[in-house]
Amino acid sequence: MTEATVPPRSRSRVWRKLRRSPAALAGLLIVGFFVALAVLAPVLPIADPLATSWTAIRKPPSDIYLLGSDDIGRDVLSRMIWGAQASLMAGVISVAIALFTGVPLGLVAGYFGGWVDIIISRFTDALLAMPFLIMAIALAAFLGPSLTNAMIAIGLSAMPVFIRLTRGQVLAVKTEDYVEGARSVGLGHIDIMSRYILPNIVPPLIVQATLTVATAIIAEASLSFLGLGQQAPAPSWGSMLNVAKNFLTQAPWMAIWPGAAIFLVVIGFNLLGDGLRDALDPREH
Amino acid sequence: MPIYILKRILGALPTLLIVSVLVFLLQKLLPGDPVLALAGEERDPATLALLREQYHLNDPLVTQYFRWLGGVLTGDFGISLRTNQPVLELIGQKLPVTLQLAAMSMIFAMLIGIPAGIIAAVKKNTLLDWIANIVALSGLSIPNFWLGIMLILLVSVNLGWLPASGYESPLVDFWLSIKTMLMPAFVLGTGLAATLMRHTRSAMLGVMSADYIRTARAKGLSTSEVVLTHSFRNALLPIITLSALLFGELLAGAVLTEQIFTIPGFGKLIVDAVFNRDYAVVQGVVLCTAVGFLLMNLIADVLSVIMNPRMRSAL
């Protein structure tokens, strides 16, 4: 029996569809640009993001400070580029936490059904009843303010969506012939779940994960804005905005750029997610 | 119908019970000794032991939970460490402010999102549809706290049209209250308007390809009659259900909006409580939000049944 995974031809078809969608391509380019900035931050010829200068407090954009300087004379451009690391890392790691906790629970609930499903589903309903941001704020508050704890809080808050999505997909897939076949040749539950069910529910999970990265980036920025995420002096877009709101009249550039960066990267992930949804939806083929 | 509502309420009870367990455990299972927060600067072991005894923290976890739940059921959510006020009283003071903000945001979102969704569906694949989709995507992607800051910069600082912060009760000065809430409501309603636009468009597109719409067109009805009388009426059901569900989300979104515009509401209460390590208030707010969310779910379900004759007859 061959394993029922997405065949290479199907993968290239997805890529072809994605390439033909200008919106998805724009999303990919935006995300790629910010990923490149984040990765290349240590080698780019930019100022030290933590270096303060008492002679350069709140300087407007100029040849020396392309995007201006902040309230203690740090280069805004440099902090923006290093801030991309924190934001993207928070987005990706939070979603990874949500996937690694949510998908196994959803798999088990959908596959075994019965009491296991009832308990997991009720637990998911309860988590979904607590709004995402309030849950993340409460968790970040109890865990203590730091970027790591913010990522854990966001990941756990995003988990129920993945439990529900995975469970729904498993229910649709587990009655397929190839799963029945795997069961009839005596394969164990873990083998069936990992080799026959999981590979076939990956596409909707990829789409949801991409869209959740966008939500997680906004959530991290929100927590940092409230002082519950990245702590000073390390740069992050949310914490930059938190400081900037106190100098709106004197130094508006401090607020404009970090917010614009969050907006752009989130729109990039949303465009990419929408494009992936269209490319991976079998009804579109 | 009353039996259906009763069944739905009973169905929500187990979820509510799990929510209460999670909210209770939120404080118990995570690091940090609540007694240290209660004692403040005091670190004397005898005082700490006394506080532990006084707050029944030496009891088994299950006993503590049921004592806490019993209190919650009788309206005793505990006392705020910072203000010494009962948590329920604090929530009662702040909730109306947030409800006003949420209601104004919802009105704004419906006024923008629903007509935009109808136009995008009727003019599918035209420039108008394209523009509406781009605006909706931007609305979904823009961080509302940044939008708030930018609006303060433009509308309050540069143009001086609206106050940048503050709150006035509508019972004291109605127009000033509306004026101070306009910008926050716009900020909070933007993402909502975008979601409503997308759902209205998709619901309208679904309805417009139905046979009875083709029949209505074949009967010679004008486009506006077909759209408003036949298509929109039938697309309204998922839109109303979604609006009820989004109202719960608004309470969460209000956290940042209230922080930016210094509105003394529910959202500001939780943020202040978080920074003051006022756990009873955090627990109370999370529990109330969850109950509010489940209530809106229930209202959405009941509205669906009331508005859909086929679902009504199936009861």
Order of helices and strands of chain A: HHHHHHHHHHH
Supply the CATH superfamily name of chain A. MetI-like
Count, helices of chain B: 13
Q: What is the mean predicted local confidence, pLDDT of chain A?
A: 89
Estimated radius of gyration of chain A: 22 Å
Helix fraction bin of chain B: over 70%
Q: What is the CATH topology descriptor of the largest domain in chain B? A: MetI-like fold
Q: What does the secondary structure layout of this molecule look like, with pairings?
A:
The complex is a heterodimer of chains A (285) and B (315).
Chain A: H1 8-20, H2 22-40, H3 76-112, H4 114-129, H5 132-143, H6 147-173, H7 177-184, H8 189-197, H9 202-225, H10 237-244, H11 253-280
Helix pairs in contact in A: 1-11, 2-3, 2-11, 3-4, 3-6, 3-9, 3-11, 4-6, 5-6, 6-9, 7-8, 9-10, 9-11, 10-11
Chain B: H1 2-28, H2 34-39, H3 45-54, H4 61-73, H5 87-122, H6 127-141, H7 144-158, H8 174-208, H9 211-218, H10 223-260, H11 266-275, H12 279-307, H13 309-314
Could you explain the architecture of this structure?
- The complex is a heterodimer of chains A (285) and B (315).
- With 285 residues, chain A is mostly helical.
- Chain A has a single domain (22-41, 52-280), classed as MetI-like fold (Orthogonal Bundle), CATH 1.10.3720.
- Chain A contains eleven helices and no strands.
- In chain A, helix 3 runs antiparallel to helix 4 (114-129), helix 6 (147-173) runs antiparallel to helix 9 and helix 9 (202-225) runs parallel beside helix 10 (237-244).
- The radius of gyration of chain A is 22 Å and the shape is elongated.
- The two termini of chain A are 26 Å apart.
- The mean pLDDT of chain A is 89.
- Chain B has 13 helices and no strands.
- Chain B starts with a helix and ends with a helix.
- Classes of the chains: A mainly alpha (285), B mainly alpha (315).
- The interface between A and B is large, with 45 and 50 residues.
